[in-house]
Automatic annotation (TrEMBL):
Residue span(s) of domain Transglutaminase-like: 31-136
Descriptive protein name: Transglutaminase-like domain-containing protein
Species classification: Bacteria, Bacillati, Actinomycetota, Actinomycetes, Kitasatosporales
Gene3D superfamilies to which the protein is assigned, alphabetical: 3.10.620.30
Pfam families cross-referenced by the UniProt entry: Transglut_core
Length: 199
């Protein structure tokens, strides 16, 4: 998919903010630990993706009612939904100088009902000609997201016939509607009521 960056300035996708707090000691410790086992940008990006995908459970799968939204909190509590896990992965990538941003899909149930906005990321490794999307949501039966910079292996390929869509915009910071839902929710059940159904 051809992504449309919000900004032509690559450094925008290395910045920190309140959700992607890659200057935080928890993020830096995790980034340093992962880098020490890899040593190059490609191997590090893969290790960071697999760490967030596999070692931080999606709270809907684990049943955790807590709502984490800052990257440091996601890493510290090992908990989060797709959006929160995406914040954590973007922070880990930026902590090691790899430009990364946030992107979104509109998904629905198998009958087209209950639409929701799903969060994922895109990165651009040194020397790469384009951005590559990755989905750190976490695998489960029927979901098999992989690290692949050539052929997308996302958790949920969209089904246009059900009104699903890939949003082409690449955001440097979380979409305001998504971030507001995360910040204002008392627990995960409350979060499901607040998350946007479209952007």
């Amino acid at each position: 998919m051809q992504l449309i960056p919000q900004s032509p300035d690559l450094f925008t996708y290395l910045a920190s903010d309140e959700a992607i707090d890659h200057w935080h000691p928890v993020v830096l410790e995790a980034a340093d630990r992962l880098w020490s086992t890899t040593g190059d940008a490609y191997s590090y990006a893969r290790a960071a993706f697999e760490f967030v995908r596999d070692d931080i459970p999606h709270s809907a799968d684990s049943g955790d009612p807590r709502v984490a939204w800052r990257a440091s909190d996601v890493l510290g509590t090992r908990n989060g939904i797709c959006h929160a896990k995406s914040h954590a992965l973007v922070a880990l990538l930026r902590a090691q100088g790899i430009p990364a941003g946030l992107c979104y899909q509109r998904l629905a149930d198998d009958d087209g009902s209950h639409p929701l906005v799903h969060g994922l990321i895109a990165l651009r490794l040194p020397g790469a000609a384009r951005w590559s999307r990755l989905d750190p949501r976490g695998n489960r039966p029927g979901v098999d997201a992989r690290f692949d910079l050539v052929e997308e292996r996302l958790a949920f390929p969209v089904r246009p016939e059900l009104g699903e869509a890939d949003h082409p915009e690449l955001y440097a910071a979380p979409h305001p509607a998504v971030l507001a839902a995360l910040k204002e929710s008392a627990d995960r059940e409350d979060l499901w009521r607040r998350l946007p159904t479209a952007l």
